[in-house]
Structures are given as structure tokens and as C-alpha cells.
Amino acid sequence: MTLTEVARAIAMKQVSSHEVTRALLHRIAQWQPHLNGFMAIEAEAALKAAEQADAALAAGEVRGPLHGVPLAHKDMYYDAGKVVTCGSLIRRDYVATTTSTALQRLKDAGQVRLGALHMAEFAYGPTGHNSHYGPVRNPWNVAHITGGSSSGSGSAVAARLTFAALGSDTGGSIRMPANFCGVTGLKVTWGRISRAGAMPLSQSLDTVGPLAQTAEDCALLLALMAGPDPEDPTASAEPVADYVAATKGSLKGLKIGVPATFYVDDLDSEVARVLDETIAVLKREGADIVKVELPDQRQLQAASQLVLAVEAAAFHKRWLIERPQDYGAQVLMRLQNGLAVPAITYLEAMRWRGPALAAHHAATAGVDAVIAPVSPVPPPTIAESDVGGNANAPAVLQRLTLFTRPVNYLGLPSLVVPSGFTGSGLPVGMQLIGRAFDEATLLTIGAAFQRATDYHAKVPKLPS
Questions:
Q1: 38-74, pLDDT tens digit by residue?
Q2: What SS3 state is found at 131?
Q3: Quick check: is 250 catalytic?
Q4: CA 244: distance to chain centroid?
Q5: Which residues on adjacent β-strands are paired with residue 256?
Q6: Could you confirm whether 74 is annotated as catalytic?
Q7: Does position 461 have pLDDT exceeding 80, yes or no?
Q8: Which stretches of 133-190 are DSSP H helices?
Q9: What's the CATH number of domain 3-299+349-457, 3.90.1300.10, 3.40.50.10420, 3.40.50.300, 3.40.190.150?
Q10: Which segments cross the bilayer (predicted)?
């Protein structure tokens, strides 16, 4: 079942929260040795919470749209009284004293906590490697990466170990796992969802968002989390749309832009094939497909990396001085690089954002969304992308994030939908890039595509 379907089934008492939770825990026990997707599995507490949810429902108490639905989230969302490791040694025993706003809104809607999902150390890695706790593995082929940093979220949703999961996206960390694991992932407009109580990485790039089976599921979660928050002054008061209603819309009358360069250059042949097939489906469903000439995306990518490096280093400065030995080698190197960037260079990159966004708006004025690959290549193997064990790995990593970072720099929303498979059975997704605070249009397009295809419904087989 999708998140939307299981929430409805529990609400209508067709199945109990306890039955659903027990079934997921059984599946987690089967898959976890193969995937390493969970940081913590809280079976006893989850079953108890599910029983309480069932008792409440029997008494006529409905807590919200997620009443009794078991979920697990990336281990960087503070949950009062719970250990939140952030995928690190430094926070291995950190017990949160507050609960993140995004997580609290899902709890208020009735979710049951299954545990915590694995992630890249401090959310600073695009592959799913973690030198402290081992890599998360792709359920479609365990030799391959999941993408990061929301590696456990992508892997667990794909293997149907949770109906959905929170991730975070600073340079592609929701979109890459969604792409490589064959699930739907939504990177929201900067400020659309409060970041209070979520581990920071880069203050001007970080976004909170969901990974789930479908665009409809993402719409449900976005509707629950979006909106202003007194705990986060950067959370926007922009009106919250009816995102679930948006998923019922048609593609007729919508214009989708295909970039003339950059996102279509030097693509792996199978990624190029899936892009062409996706465009054909959108066109058949009524969308008008046009070419768009975007400004230089490599400049945006470089600026995004620079901003991320400086802001991450600033957040980690004290630990870099006091506990450098407790970082993994790759994360330590990236953080130290951030300390070496001159303040003037950082300020120039920040000041250029306004003109860059204006240029993007001018270039895309005639379209409702832009379609592009998430990555120019299918998921590489864990060995190919291991910086510690492969001399070519840095080049592999640089290429992975080529198509995601520009969106973060501009602060725009992007929805990834599963769009096909390689000949060897690995998922390929496409991202839809929208206007600021227009997640609704992206969800309309994504849901229409999913009504016309079944890639999102494919489920990987348990390794033997």
C-alpha cells in the first residue's frame, strides 16, 4: 500500500495499526541485514504505540490524517528523549531535548515511530557511504549506492520498510536517493517547511522534505508540514496550497520546458533514453513540451558548492577544533576546505543569488516547470564511489551532483518521480523543477505521470 492507502485503510478499520506495524517490522527484520538502512529499530515501542492508536480509534478519537501509520525518518530530526546520531560519532549518544517542528507536525497527525534511518555523516555526502556505520545499500542491487545524504530514507521507502520518510536536501540529498532507489522525492522551496529542530548543514541551502512511493503521498506530507513556525524565522508565511487536490489535476494546458543544454549534455545512454520516454508520456498526457535556454548552470553549481562549504564549516567550527579525529576522512576534508574560503568570495556568491534567480525566471517565464535528469548516470557501485578505496571516486562524486546543486542555490522546488529502469534493473528518475512556492504544479505533473505509468509501484525483491 501507499501511505495514502494505508492511512485510509487504518481510518476505516479495514486493518489495524498493530497489524500494519507488525508486518513492517517483519519486513525490516528481513531486509535490514542486506541494506543497513536503519540506525535504530524500536520494535517494542512501535507495537505499543500502534496498540494505543488502535484503542484511541476504537474510542472515536482520530489524531489526524496519519493516525496509526508507522513511519521512520532520517536520523537528524530531533525527537525529545531519543538519541539522534546525525550519522556521526560526535552525536552518537546525543539525546535530543526538543522535537523538530516537521516531525512534531507528523506526530500530531498521528504517526507511529518505527525507529531512525541511516544517513551520511552530518548529511554531508552524496552517495550513502558512512565511514562510521557502513554504507546503506540499494535494494534493487546491494552492490550499488542509494545516493545521499538521505540514504536510509531512499533505501527503506524503496524496500517498503516504511510508507514514507523525511529526508533533507541541501545539494540533492532527497532527490538523489529518490532517483537511485526508484521512489518519489520532493525538495521544497527554501522556507516552505520549518527547519527548526533539524540538524543544520547549510543555513541558506537546507530544506526539509519527504520521500514516499507517490506524488500523492508527498502532497499529503507537505500539506501537514508546510507553513510558518515561530521557532524558525526563515519558515515562510506564503499561503499553503491544497497539495492533495493538486494531484488530481490534468496536464492539459501545462507547458514543460526541456533544457537545450547542460542537463541533456553527456548523458549516459540509458538516462537519455528514460528522459525521452518520460517526455513522450507527458506529451501524450496533454502537456505542451518546449525547449528552454537556461543561464549557465555550471556557475550556479559552483556557487552552491562554495556556499555549502563555508556554511557547513561555520556550523562545525568548534568540533573541527576540539574533535577532528571523530570525523570520517572525507567529511573532515570537505569541512576543512570550507574554512579556507575567503569571506569576500562567500559574500560575492551570496550577492549573486538574486540576479541568478531573476535570470532563471526570465528564461523560464513561458513554462510551468522544467524537466531534467537527476543525475547524468545511473547509480554507480559502492566500490566505484568509495573515496577511501578508489582513486577515481572524487570524479564520480562530482558528476553525481551536477544536476541537483543549481536548484538548491536558487531555492526552487523540485520533484523527483521514478521514470524507468536501466537494462540491468536499476531505477532512473527525472526531476521537475518549478517556480518558488509552486510545489502544487509539480505534484500535478508528477501524479499525472504516475497515473500513466507504474514505475513507482515496482518493488525490489529480497536478496537471496
A1: 999 999 999 999 999 999 999 999 999 999 999 999 9
A2: coil
A3: no
A4: 19
A5: 289, 369
A6: yes
A7: yes
A8: 151-158, 175-181
A9: 3.90.1300.10
A10: none
